[in-house]
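Second attempt. The first submission of Sulfur carrier protein FdhD had a stray character pasted in from the spreadsheet, which I only caught after the job came back as garbage. Lesson logged: always re-copy from the clean sequence file. Corrected sequence (276 aa) follows.
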Amino acid sequence: MQTRDADIRAACAPVRVLTLRSDSAGTERADAVAVEAPLEVRIGGKPVTVLMRTPGHDEELVTGFLFGEGVIADADDIISIQRPAVASDRERGNVVEVQLMVSRRVFDGDRLFYSSSSCGICGKKSIASIEVRGTPTHSPLTVSSATLTALPDRLRAAQPAFARTGGVHASGLFTADGALIEVREDVGRHNALDKLVGWALDRGDVPLADRVLLVSGRVSYELVQKAIAAGIPIVAAVGAPSSFAVDLAEQFGITLIGFLRASGMNIYANPDRVTA
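This time the job returned cleanly.
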């Protein structure tokens, strides 16, 4: 697992801040904030969505997003992802053109052309359109509680953009014995997971039936939905799950863990995969 300096620079923007404290005078200093920028995705020359993301690993983001939306079945459905000629400086580096073998689902208005960094399902128009497509997991994977409680510190140590800005989420894939395989950061929780799934798709590793997913914040519907699509049997979060996330985990056989700390955890669904 490698983090390129160029990726860190793309994810962080320098700023000047005035820091005020109750017990001292204000001080001005240099700081950094997480970059949030639009990525326009075109398929066959037609804009289909705009993803608000942190630049870096854009091709993985697009691959993971299209997979999660059911547009592709695997990475082989993508012929190419390229940067087309653009008309303005604002678009430079923020537009990708995707050429597909066959689209399993046509963007026919089911999703509007905008997705914010805080919402993985923004633009869906009906309850029916958020139906989860997937099959329940029957993975025999088990992980000890001692291994799980060590994961948050390992994920935090592999978040260079968070260390500089404090403003990005992370998704990390781990082995059953707690080794960190890969991590992705982004201002959007769902974007970080899309990048991670896109990375795995490019390697031919999906379904990820022998992996543990850890996310840095809370876990809600869209993260569990993406885990279902990728075949991940254990989803853990340092924050709380939503009711919809718990319901989905129970329905699809996913072990769902929240409030994961060095001191313990809460298991909300399918606890049999966690051993003492």
